[in-house]
Write a structure and sequence with these properties.
It comes from Aaosphaeria arxii CBS 175.79. This is Beta-galactosidase. The chain folds into 4 domains: 7-342, TIM Barrel (Alpha-Beta Barrel), CATH 3.20.20.80; 356-563, beta-galactosidase, domain 2 (3-layer Sandwich); 629-645 and 822-970, Jelly Rolls (Sandwich); 647-801, Jelly Rolls. The chain contains 10 helices and 58 strands. The strands form 12 sheets. An 8-stranded antiparallel sheet has the order 13-14-15-20-21-24-27-26. A 7-stranded parallel sheet has the order 10-7-6-5-4-12-11, covered by helices on one side. Strands 32, 33, 35, 36, 53, 56 and 58 form a 7-stranded mixed sheet that branches. Strand 20 and strand 21 (451-455) form a beta hairpin. Helix 1 (68-77) runs parallel beside helix 3 (109-118) and helix 6 runs parallel beside helix 7 (344-358). The protein binds 2-acetamido-2-deoxy-beta-D-glucopyranose (NAG) (3 copies). One 2-acetamido-2-deoxy-beta-D-glucopyranose (NAG) binds at residues 96-97, 147.
Length: 971
């Protein structure tokens, strides 16, 4: 994640790109082919310039391949013409010998087929290091033990590993490159690796980093990857890897922002991740629809021509996939929510995206002016961008003080093909507080040859239906707009309110109108139809494409008003086939070529009538199932079984199958304080909870009276210790501590003189740190027995239990991150098919007393109504700031984790496919109490969304839910 830092008060930069002649900005390619090119202005694919607008998603954060299409369709519908994806090395490489690109969601190739089918380009970002707020930044755990050096450098030990991984990735992705007919147009080398210079100001080359980047480059070219290479710098000022800033080696083809290259924001803020102690539900209010409106347009004012919205769909941090700071949600307050629902932020994103899709002239503009002098009101700041070839211009207006809450009415001085004008001629443009608008002059209407000389309402979209062109304008309700349509002489109001002002000029017709809740339709005598809607209506407008082309040409789209989503469209003979979503009864209105007489929506004909302005009007009937009805039909989570979750605390627990923790040396760069080495890495455990059992004797004169433990697990982690089954104490953790140390007095516990004594330490881990911190171990840094005499004493031996099988993959579908070493996890109690018939009955909401742990299980039959897309979540309520840690398992997937002591997230959406919507679902809940108060968690299943939909959430997902097999060897 990178925050492209734009302060809330958007400072007016004085950096004006001067108007250069054509030859001063040559078009570049990577020397291998001319399929993808670029220059100062924009990216070109097959010679075609465009505003490149991608949305980031991480397929491994939505481990249900059947749902990827849903996300991609939603992004396409919002006007995106591409996606960007990070790969996650560790997800594919459970150990140093296995690479898995086939099991379940490990096979990411369907993303490329979907992108191609839907018409989205792909920026592929396979790492090897990805960051992404993910466990180890995507570096596999086994790589972070020190055995492979410091990583992200030219060390041959590291090179051998990343190249083994990347060679396969290259092999798999190569057929999907645009040069081979696929959607991938860029390939990113490394990530947030701004290390080209030891000192960015003095430009002292960092030879090791340069060698690494060159090796990445050379190997990848050697494997036949021939699209441009890009980089993504952690901030602008490292200026690493740009040919515009250096020539010391390792430079990539296309860099974020540099003069001879397109202004490219590889990660523009789509939201923000939510740390453990962040607010429940994330921080959407700071990055809501208003934020989208202002900041997305500000990028246009900055002449940014390629933007990757990070994240467009965040998804989940299921199964220990996150790094320590973040909780189990990666919703990111993104336009498409973790639960796949869309709301106002998405809609506002769509208003921007659909406009930019038809703003073809923007792909080549100069920033020719910026000031407060453009407007009749000095509080309005305007940036003018102009296409030097067509003279089409974009005026981006906002309050000079961008957080302003003022409502300002003004007129704008614009330069058009018919001379200078102050627009509107009648009335005003309104800016309501924190808001921005992009107003256009000399705007071509598709390839019809017609154009708008100016418009003071924003354009939503344009569809060229061959016999007529439809332009949809929008503005907030109650505002006014005015346009000058070139070549028009007459206008007829076909629907909605009257025109407020109209005048004929030699160049065309000027009309002004009010914007209200009822759409207005104006028909001009030159075949142009203007549809005028307010913001809320615009939110329900869609412009699906009829072909799989990221360019989404105006003559290959139709317009649909009404539904909650249009996923795709196709015309065959006189039928328009639409797929989409809706819930309550909706009037639908469709603008399609006049050859279309019938409409099928989700494969069912809907009756339509032609309006007096040649659109088709019909009704989508109210859906039978609603959030309320589905909620009422859900079975209660009332019948639970329970078992002891921490039998390992007992003195006589049989740990003979555990791994001896007996290493006396370590390759970790920072050795422990005491030996043996109690780093889980040493013993092949790299995810989730860890259990340590240390033995000591209490014979002789030096009888220990306390133990000092310093444990490391990452920000927010916790641990508890037991002596011979008795609770000694716990570290509750917090967001400031990666390690936690305590001296625990033995007090009431009787030590055995005649046999060994056992200390059990249970700790959770919060994932591995990113960057250099990935090498931080997880485990015990210092374990010292303290005797009355004050002299330290050693343990006689240690054992460790981690996830069953360690890095030897037990379950290829869910991979090695999903589980840790809890008793329930090692024995597979969380999996469907485990027999709990001899367990006791017990409710997690009743809970238990004492500093121990319990595992609860229930099986929930779901029979949800077919034909709907339904979004479900589990809600885990608990006493305020309770000292417990709980983990939720759904059909074996760890899909939620609460740490009430400082964490706030309680709602955990779970995808269909993980949940069987027409069958039994095994729910597991582990509650680990870190003090004597014990633990209780009230768990509810909640319905978040119900839509009639063409999306099939009743696909056969059985293969995603592997069943229990005997795991007693891991007890
Ligand atoms: C994997 O790691 C083990 C343990 O460090 C080592 O013995 C083995 O040679 C490695 N295998 C490969 C293919 O590097
Ligand atoms: C039109 O406005 C532009 C920008 O303010 C100015 O440079 C130009 O001189 C004006 N042209 C006329 C004919 O007034
Ligand atoms: C336009 O705005 C100006 C300045 O606020 C105001 O004086 C004028 O009345 C407005 N005109 C209309 C038609 O609203």
């Amino acid at each position: 994640m990178k925050w492209t830092s734009l302060s809330h008060w958007l400072a007016a930069t004085s950096l004006l790109s001067s108007v250069h002649g054509q030859n001063e900005w040559p078009v570049h390619d990577n020397g291998l082919n001319e399929v993808v090119q670029w220059d100062h202005y924009s990216v070109l694919v097959n010679g075609q310039r465009f505003f490149f607008w991608t949305g980031e998603l991480h397929q491994w954060r939505i481990p249900v391949p059947e749902l990827w299409e849903d996300i991609l369709q939603k992004l396409k519908a919002a006007g995106f013409n591409g996606i960007a994806i990070y790969e996650h090395w560790g997800w594919h490489a459970p150990n140093n010998e296995t690479l898995d690109f086939t099991s379940g969601a490990h096979n990411f190739l369907p993303i490329f087929d979907l992108a191609k089918k839907i018409g989205l380009y792909v920026v592929y970002r396979p790492g090897p290091y990805s960051n992404a707020e993910s466990n180890g930044g995507g570096l596999p755990g086994w790589l972070t033990t020190g055995e492979y050096g410091a990583l992200r450098d030219p060390d041959p030990r590291y090179t051998a590993e990343w190249s083994r991984y990347w060679e396969q990735v290259a092999d798999l992705v190569k057929p999907h490159l645009v040069t081979n007919g696929g959607p991938v147009i860029m390939w990113q080398l490394e990530n947030e690796y701004g290390h080209q210079f030891l000192d960015p100001d003095l430009k002292t080359p960092n030879q090791s980093a340069i060698d690494y980047m060159e090796t990445l480059n050379d190997y990848t070219r050697g494997w036949g990857i021939d699209v441009p290479f890009t980089a993504n710098n952690p901030n602008m000022w490292t200026r690493a890897w740009s040919k515009d800033y250096s020539n010391v080696g390792g430079e990539v083809d296309m860099y974020d922002i540099s003069p001879t290259q397109p202004s490219f924001l590889m990660e523009f803020q789509g939201g923000a991740y939510n740390p453990w102690d962040g607010p429940a539900g994330g921080c959407l209010e700071n990055m809501d629809a208003t934020w989208v409106n202002l900041f997305f347009r500000h990028n246009i004012a900055q002449k940014v021509v390629a933007v990757n919205v990070y994240m467009a769909y965040g998804g989940t941090n299921w199964g220990n996939i996150a790094y320590p700071s973040v909780g189990t949600s990666y919703d990111y307050s993104a336009p498409v929510h973790e639960n796949r629902l869309i709301g106002d932020k998405y809609s506002e994103t769509k208003l921007f995206g659909l406009f930019m899709r038809v703003a073809r002239d923007y792909a080549k503009v100069n920033r020719v002016g910026l000031s407060t002098a453009y407007s009749t009101d000095p509080s309005i700041f305007t940036t003018e961008l102009r296409n030097p070839d067509t003279n089409g211009a974009f005026y981006v207006v906002r309050h000079d003080y961008s957080p302003s809450k003022e409502i300002t009415q003004f007129r704008l001085h614009v330069t058009t093909s018919i001379g200078n004008q102050t627009v509107p001629q009648h009335g005003n443009i309104t800016l309501n507080g924190t808001e921005s608008k992009i107003l256009v002059t000399d705007f071509p209407i598709g390839s019809s040859g017609k154009k708008l000389v100016y418009s003071t309402a924003e354009i939503l979209t344009i569809s060229d239906l061959h016999d007529r062109q439809v332009i949809v304008f929008w503005a907030p309700s109650g505002e006014t707009g005015e346009l000058l349509l070139k070549g028009a002489k007459e206008v007829e109001v076909k629907s909605g309110q009257d025109i407020t002002f109209q005048t004929s000029t030699p160049d065309g017709l000027v009309v002004a109108f009010n914007v209200g809740e009822t759409p207005g339709v104006l028909e001009f005598d030159n075949g142009v139809q203007a549809v005028i809607v307010d913001r809320q209506t615009a939110y329900r407008f869609w412009a699906p494409t009829l072909e799989s082309n990221p360019f989404a040409w105006e003559n290959q789209t139709v317009i649909v008003n009404g539904p909650d989503l249009i996923r795709d469209a196709k015309i065959e003979e006189d039928v328009l086939y639409l797929h989409g979503d809706w819930s309550i009864q909706r009037d639908v209105e469709i603008w399609a070529p006049s050859t279309v007489k019938k409409v099928h929506f989700n494969d069912k004909e809907i009756k339509v009538e032609e309006t007096n302005y040649n659109s088709l009007a019909g009704v989508l009937e109210e859906a039978e199932a609603t959030i309320e009805s589905v909620q009422a039909s859900l079975p209660g989570l009332t019948e639970w079984k329970v078992a002891d979750g921490l039998p390992e605390a007992a003195l006589d627990y049989d740990d003979s199958r555990w791994t001896d923790a007996d290493h006396m040396t370590t390759s970790h760069p920072v050795p422990p304080d005491t030996y043996p080495v109690l780093f889980a890495d040493e013993y092949g455990y790299q995810a989730g909870n860890l259990l340590w059992r240390g033995r000591f004797d209490a014979t002789g004169t030096e009888v220990p009276s306390a133990v000092y433990l310093r444990v490391i697990g990452g920000l927010g982690f916790g641990w508890s210790a037991y002596l011979n089954g008795n609770f000694l104490g716990a570290w509750q953790g917090g967001m400031k501590n990666k390690t936690g140390d305590l001296t625990l007095e033995f007090r009431n516990t009787t030590l055995h003189k005649d046999q060994e004594n056992v200390i059990l330490v249970i700790q959770d881990t919060m994932g591995k740190e990113q960057r250099e911190g990935a090498l931080d171990p997880r485990g015990i840094l210092n374990a010292t027995l303290i005797t009355a005499a004050g002299s330290p004493k050693n343990f006689t031996s240690w054992k460790i239990a981690g996830n069953a099988g360690g890095n030897h993959l037990l379950d290829p579908i869910k991979g090695t991150y999903n589980e840790g070493g809890l008793h329930a996890e090692r024995l597979g109690w969380h999996l469907p098919g485990f027999d709990d018939s001899n367990w006791e009955l017990g409710q997690p909401s009743d809970g238990f007393k004492g500093a121990t742990a319990r595992f609860y299980r229930t099986v929930v039959p779901l029979h949800l109504p077919k034909g709907y897309d339904i979004s479900l979540a589990f809600e885990l309520n608990h006493p305020t700031r309770a000292k417990l840690r709980a983990q939720l398992y759904v059909n074996g997937y760890q899909f939620g984790r609460i740490i009430p002591f400082f964490g706030n997230q309680i709602e955990f959406p779970v995808f269909p496919g993980i949940l069987d919507y027409d069958g039994d679902n095994t729910i597991g809940l582990s509650i680990w109490a870190l003090d004597e108060a014990g633990g209780a968690v009230d768990i509810q299943l909640k319905v978040l969304g119900v839509h009639r939909s063409s999306l099939d959430v009743f696909f056969d997902g059985e293969y995603l839910r592997p069943k229990w097999t005997d795991r007693s060897e891991y007890a």
